[in-house]
Amino acid sequence: xxxxxKFFASCRELCGKTSERFQLQDKATLRDLRSVVMSMHxxxxxxxxxxxxxxxxxxxTEQTELKEGDVVAFxxxxxxx
Amino acid sequence: xxxxxKFFASCRELCGKTSERFQLQDKATLRDLRSVVMSMHxxxxxxxxxxxxxxxxxxxTEQTELKEGDVVAFxxxxxxx
Amino acid sequence: xLEITRDDFSIDEIVQKIKTEDIGAIVSFIGIVRGKSNGKxxxxxxxxxxxxxAILQLKNIRAETFRKFNVNQIAIVHRIGSLKVSDNILLIxxxxxxxxxxxxxxxxxxxxxxxxxxxxxKEFTPEESYWIEGETHGKxx
Amino acid sequence: xLEITRDDFSIDEIVQKIKTEDIGAIVSFIGIVRGKSNGKxxxxxxxxxxxxxAILQLKNIRAETFRKFNVNQIAIVHRIGSLKVSDNILLIxxxxxxxxxxxxxxxxxxxxxxxxxxxxxKEFTPEESYWIEGETHGKxx
Lengths: 81, 81, 141, 141
Known about the structure:
Number of domains of chain C: 1
Order of helices and strands of chain C: EHEEEEHEEEHEE
CATH architecture of chain A: Roll
Radius of gyration of chain A: 12 Å
Strand order of the largest sheet of chain A: 2-1-5-3-4
Number of helices of chain C: 3
Number of domains of chain A: 1
Strand order of the largest sheet of chain C: 1-6-8-2
Oligomer: heterotetramer
CATH class of chain C: Alpha Beta
């Protein structure tokens, strides 16, 4: 299945792109996707401890299984307001 | 000495006037003035317990001595805001 | 800016006026005429002020708030005269470097003003009219 | 009214829009670009949003605030893009029958938004630029 990954703020700048498509096996979880993304963009390791990941615009656990068409986003802690 | 007394809100309506001049003896206090005003306007007795009195736009004790030209005001507890 | 006035105010204008480079947070309070008071319909309110003393009190409240809170700007406008439902009555605008002080100071100004500002409100219902008298006596100011 | 926009806002307009006969108190918060941050001069800020998620988060915050506080209206506008010193960043407007709930709810919206709204701020000083990253991780939303 194909998953669209978006990058925001410092993640966007570190990866050098606003989004990227990843091909994953069926039943892959958010944690699996995270590993794939991190191996493609090892620079994100620097912010591993506080990186946030959303699935379809909400926060879910990393055990959540993905499905075709899902939109995942990687970003740092928010700083609006 | 002559003292100007102003009335506001319900005090103004009860007394039927916005201000009145009172003639007092030298060294008269705010308490003396209060007695004179109350005897001229006994209807104010109804609000005796919560009537507020200011002297030259500030709150002072009733023992304060008055002097020529002082402006005193009688009014109920405030309700602005 | 401290005003007792018959005129309505623009929050945008006052916010613009008080802005400085130090201000990161502005908290404002607007008091508005409600259509009901204690279950009764209200047609209008009339506000009467002891204007000279009210301006003095606003200065006292502002000075005391500057002493208590780390804020940069305080503007207060209280309207008087006849006001109808949904009309603005009161505006308090507080500008500070940080949000916590701005919130606390704005609330503080409001509570002090409700206790000590010599302004009185008369409510007009379809049947009658009566003065509203505050619970506290203002002598703690 | 919940908006993530490049445009500036008018507080007067939004206050006018949310007024109803029940509302006696409106508390608003405006966040503004300061000229200094941690002692450094700031030339401008840039705000980036995950817009779709941000709107969803604003809806969540509004719904949760309505559950927790007795307030009638909540409007939130957060600007994005490049903002200079003294520009408005954020507006929160809360209308309620009484002042206490309006103050508490406005503050609550602000604190929730600072923790969970997916918007990021980049500071530009004369020498450099860097992303500001929040201390909390948003997962408690």
